[in-house]
């Protein structure tokens, strides 16, 4: 710049010209700079170095004052929300650690300014838009405009965002003078929506005053808030909105946002009773404030159709968050929406749950991961300023419940929910933010809860001062109507006419709410499930009852195998891939190759396969290697399975974050979107599902019974006692079996539980999961040591046409040839089989003992077990497991053998009861193993004889 100035002083700004002239004249450091004179003022009479030296005190004061004003502006941008009027009750418990307030007219002295400076004119920095078209303003006006922008009914947190463009975008939306304005039509629409929201709650309170419904009273502006977000998003091209929310306000949202028919919300037997609509008489159903809905309707603002989906969820509050994200990701994937412009998600939260539930944090951390991002979610917090009976100061350690959102640089817009116009504006901005930057954003509706936790709760017991204040509060509809009448937007007569016009649901009464037929089930499931909506008691003829032919045809299996072999020279993996090529040559497969063939054959058939979990690309046990990494070029990878066939379906394999709760919920949501995809979640070790138990209990196990929603998600849970200690041994099969509503008919179980012992059976069960005419969750206890066990291999012949999944694998040794001579039949499942046959061989008991593998635990194979027991009429029955007696499968199996097959009790051979899943001592493990094998084969020990 200096050389440019030497060439021609006009090449640089005037300030630089003065600086270089003064420097060349010998001005000392700090004096050469001369601040631009405000409003045309010049330092007349002061020229050269001597003049600058004489003017130095004035220049420094001028510079300091301008810097002080810039600091003041920044302080409003950072901390303006501290003094914003956000709480409609004016008793906010937000705690900023008693930090002194540094903004406001009375605090200008903190910046070195005085009251006399309020009328001085200061040049505005480029990091603010409060000037509009003006570049300088008096300090008094600057403060006034800053307080208008940041300290009224809207508080904005955004200065922690490390992107200048995004910060400037937000400043422009809130600082530009007069930007918060609405047309006459928009105000009338807002009033109409407020009327519908308020009248709906009044209707429920009048008709069912003693019924739990978790009403929206105190935050009725939520309904126009959501509709504003949907309107704006639809105008931006969004075609589908997927929502998740807790129970508070759900009925109102269903009725006035999703526009679910009232006869689907209410089913009445008399005027004092309300319940949910029972879709199937066999289903358990759920309470009315847990139900969801799928609905496609015309948006009157954008004149475009938009699909609205509200996910069903239990009272576990935030558990639905990752499920919504997974379903959103799937919808984006299937419609080719790679930027989130067509499909988006909205998540509603309670303030206490948003701060207290760890799943919120897990979900936020999925927001920017390549295989999990939904390109921005709008989070709406219904901030009641209280939990059940817990004050905020007892419920969180952060000032706001929304502070968790700061970890992903999501802007947070706090707004007083008693100002519907401010709510409407903030929601418009939030929708624009999401559709501009495709990143998360939070809208914090600061409101109150007019009733207790539910309508039967008495809040005065624990929050007397708050509820005394609430009783004095005017309703938000009353406040809005009075304001609009005062502004001349509507007249009192018009308002009175509007109320009954939008209150017509009151006249229907309970008598008009009749029980619909189950055609509505399809509307709840979504468009991709139309051909899958069959009744649970719709039986299938016997050949299909236990699963279709799941074999692999000749015409495309060689293509899959060639895909495996052609990459055998990949650097760093040549030994592993060469081993696979050798197995192909020998026409045998291990566990990894069997899985590869199952996935590849499904992909060739056009079935999308998605495998997710911690380290699944390589596999926890270094057995899978579905993603190959260039050893010399960073980030250069190859996924061979995406090159099986030119017209194949895509294969998605993705390492997840170190999360189980969030990621399993996400994959469950992904599987909900379409029945024609194989979606698998693999735990790093089987017991890692412990931290995802809420998703398993509340969504996977009972989802169809409660919400009439089928789901075909597959859980792969590595399981086996191998001396690794208590933490990486057991996938807790007893938990899954305890939750089975077992039935001989495969369709009537809530899920399928298998423990495969051969790669071929694993191959078949994965293919059967897609080929069967219905969808059930599949729980697979996968092996660890069997991944490379020399005996745990299958021939290709076991996967060719005519083969299928084997629910039971009978003994095929000498004992099976002479069943009348067999003294004992040992039933088992999983890895223990290989230890049993090794022990049987060592003891020379191949003729005396038959070992039968039960591969499918649920639905229990009653018919096949009966065939085996009838075959060995002279034999004792033993159930052998490597798990402890109070764990594993024994109680489940023994009950079914005794009660349903009318057989004697199975003798038990296994570990003694224990509190921990496994010992942490290798020698103790081996001792326990040998003891259970002795019990299984030693007749004397078996009968307790000497």
UniProtKB/TrEMBL annotation:
Subcellular location: Mitochondrion matrix; Nucleus
Gene3D superfamilies recorded: 3.40.50.12470, 3.40.50.970, Multifunctional 2-oxoglutarate metabolism enzyme, C-terminal domain (3.40.50.11610), TPP helical domain (1.10.287.1150)
UniProt cross-references to InterPro entries, sorted A to Z: 2-oxogl_dehyd_N, 2oxoglutarate_DH_E1, DH_E1, KGD_C_sf, ODO-1/KGD_C, THDP-binding, Transketolase-like_Pyr-bd
GO annotations of cellular component type: mitochondrial matrix; nucleus; oxoglutarate dehydrogenase complex
Cofactor annotation: thiamine diphosphate; Mg(2+)
Matching CDD domains: TPP_E1_OGDC_like
Organism: Echeneis naucrates
Functional description taken from the UniProt entry: 2-oxoglutarate dehydrogenase (E1-like) component of the 2-oxoglutarate dehydrogenase multienzyme complex (OGDHC) which mediates the decarboxylation of alpha-ketoglutarate in the tricarboxylic acid cycle. The OGDHC complex catalyzes the overall conversion of 2-oxoglutarate to succinyl-CoA and CO(2) while reducing NAD(+) to NADH. The OGDHC complex is mainly active in the mitochondrion. Involved in the inhibition of cell proliferation and in apoptosis.
EC number: 1.2.4.2
Main location: mitochondrion
Record family assignment: Belongs to the alpha-ketoglutarate dehydrogenase family.
Transketolase-like pyrimidine-binding domain sequence ranges: 589-789
Molecular function per GO: metal ion binding; oxoglutarate dehydrogenase (succinyl-transferring) activity; thiamine pyrophosphate binding
Protein name listed in UniProt: 2-oxoglutarate dehydrogenase complex component E1
Catalytic activity: N(6)-[(R)-lipoyl]-L-lysyl-[protein] + 2-oxoglutarate + H(+) = N(6)-[(R)-S(8)-succinyldihydrolipoyl]-L-lysyl-[protein] + CO2
Keywords for the protein's UniProt record, in alphabetical order: Calcium, Glycolysis, Isopeptide bond, Magnesium, Metal-binding, Mitochondrion, Nucleus, Oxidoreductase, Thiamine pyrophosphate, Transit peptide, Ubl conjugation
A Pfam family: E1_dh
Superkingdom field: Eukaryota
Residues making up the signal peptide according to the UniProt record: none
GO BP field: glycolytic process; tricarboxylic acid cycle
